[in-house]
Structure formats: structure tokens, C-alpha cells
Amino acid sequence: LFIAGENDSVLTPETNSHNAMACTNLTEKSLPTGHWMAMEKPLETNKLILDWLNLNYRKV
């Protein structure tokens, strides 16, 4: 799981474009945040993580 901040000035869409080549079975999501999405939108970040875990592993 890779969660991108849509307004991230550090990890831009251009720098993230190679993620799928490096990671098999990559799931990419984004949030309307900067670089620190867990601080800016903690509930939304946690939901994305938990949803992904529940989809790919045992129920959390």
C-alpha cells in the first residue's frame, strides 16, 4: 500500500510513478494532504490502511 499526499512537495506524482515497477501487487491511494498525511488526515489515513489490511490479510 502506498498512500500519496496530493499536495506533497517532496514525493510528487513524477517521483511516485516508478513505484509500480518496484513493487508487485502495489495498491496506490491518495489523500488531499501534503507530505504528512497521517498528521493532516489521521482518520482517513487509518481507514485506508485498515481497509487495505482487511482486504489483503485477516480481519484487523
Description:
By secondary structure, this protein is an alpha+beta fold. It has one domain. The protein is 45% helix and 13% strand. The chain is built from four helices and two strands. The protein has a two-stranded parallel sheet with strand order 1-2.
Give me some keywords for this one:
single chain, 60 residues, alpha+beta, two-stranded parallel sheet, 2 strands, 45% helix
Short précis:
The chain has 60 residues and is α+β, with helices and mostly antiparallel strands. Helices cover 45% and strands 13% of the residues.
SSE blueprint:
Blueprint: E1 2-5, H1 13-16, H2 19-22, E2 28-31, H3 37-40, H4 42-56
Parallel strand pairs: 1-2
